[in-house]
Amino acid sequence: MPPTPPVRLHLTTPPLDDAARQGRFAPARPCPEHEGLAGPDMGAWAGRTLDEVAAEDPEAVRRWLTDPDFAPPGGGESVAALITRTGEHLAGLEPGRHHAVAVQAVVRAAVVSALELPAAAFWRLDVRPGTVTVLSGRAGRWNLLVGQDPA
């Protein structure tokens, strides 16, 4: 049986915009051609700053940062659901080279899923704006390329 052709996924994070600089939760950002890599739905928190939400409901923010199954109110997506959705997308990629512009949370989720890390590792990954993260794999086994030059 011939080996399965490899999959290579380049995930580029967009540069910071004004809302991100202010610490605002963005509305779910679509990812053209890669629906499974759309940004997380932040529910009622979308458009608000972390400071605003924390002042109003510090317990909800604490749970969001510590419990991967906690979803922001108003139909938000939990970290665990984001990791699952992202992992399902990775599993369905056709062999070949793919490129997606994805928000930092999606890149974190992709790395957690691909490397089979615990969900708690999501918050321990620092994904910089305007960078490229590369995942490559074959038959469900993924590798992470660290230090890729964005050019």
Characteristic terms for this protein:
151 residues, alpha+beta
Task: Please tell me about this protein's structure.
This protein is of the alpha+beta class. Helices cover 29% and strands 16% of the residues. α2 (50-56) packs across α3 (58-66) and α4 (79-91) packs across α5. The longest helix has 13 residues, at 79-91. The radius of gyration is 16 Å and the shape is globular.
- State the shape: globular
- Give the oligomer, counting copies of the same chain as homo and different chains as hetero: single chain
- The number of helical segments is 5
Helix/strand order: EHHHHEHEE
Biggest sheet, open or closed, and with what strands and sense? 4 strands, mixed
Task: Report mean pLDDT, rounded to a whole number.
Answer: 91
Percentage of residues assigned to helices = 25-40%
Order of strands across the main sheet: 2-1-3-4
Terminal CA distance reads: 37 Å
Q: Low-confidence spans: pLDDT under 50, at least 5 residues? A: none
Percent strand: 15-25%
Calculate Rg over CA atoms.
Answer: 16 Å
Tell me the layout of helices and strands.
Layout: E1 7-12, H1 18-21, H2 50-56, H3 58-66, H4 79-91, E2 96-101, H5 104-114, E3 132-138, E4 141-145
Parallel strand pairs: 1-2
Antiparallel strand pairs: 1-3, 3-4
